[in-house]
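Before we proceed, please read the two lines closing this message. Let me know whether the C-alpha cells fit the sequence:

…
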Amino acid sequence: MIDFPAREVRLWDGERCRYTLSTSADLVATNIERREVDWSNSLLLSMRFTASRIGPYNEFLYVFFKCLSMERIEYVENYYDSCQDDGQDIVLDGWQVQRRCPHLRADLGRFGQIEGEVLTCTLHGWRYDLTTGRCLTADGHDIRASAVS
C-alpha cells in the first residue's frame, strides 16, 4: 500500500482506501526490476489490474504513475507551476470567471458552457459550481467566479 498522506509504503491492513489499484505481484516486480518510469504504459495500458475510487477523479494519482523518475517529477512540478492562474477574467452568461480552465488551461471564452450555476469546460468535460468556485470533477482545481450584477 502506498499511503500518500503518511508518506510511506506499507502492507495493506484491510482499511478503506479512497483509491485502490490491485495487480499481480510479478507485474509490479517486473516494473521495479526494469526501473520503469511510466507505469501508465507498462501497467495501466496492460489492463491487468482492478481499480476503484471513492469520490472524484484525481489527476495527481495518475500523474504519479507517469513520473517515477526525478527528471519526470521535476518536469511535472514545473508544468503545474506554469499552469497557475494568470489573473485574466471573462464574462460568460452573467458570470465573471477566470479565463483559463484549471485543468489544462483551455480558454473558457471558447470552451466554457454554463447551465444553471454550473460551468462546464467542453474541451474535457470538467465542471465547476459557479456559486462557490468548487471543481466538481477533481479536488484542488477550484475556479474564480462571481455573478455579474
Remarks:
- The mean pLDDT is 88.
- The beta strands are 2-3, 8-9, 19-23, 49-53, 89-92, 95-98, 112-115, 118-121, 126-129, 145-147.
- Helices lie at 25-33, 39-42, 59-66, 70-82, 108-111.
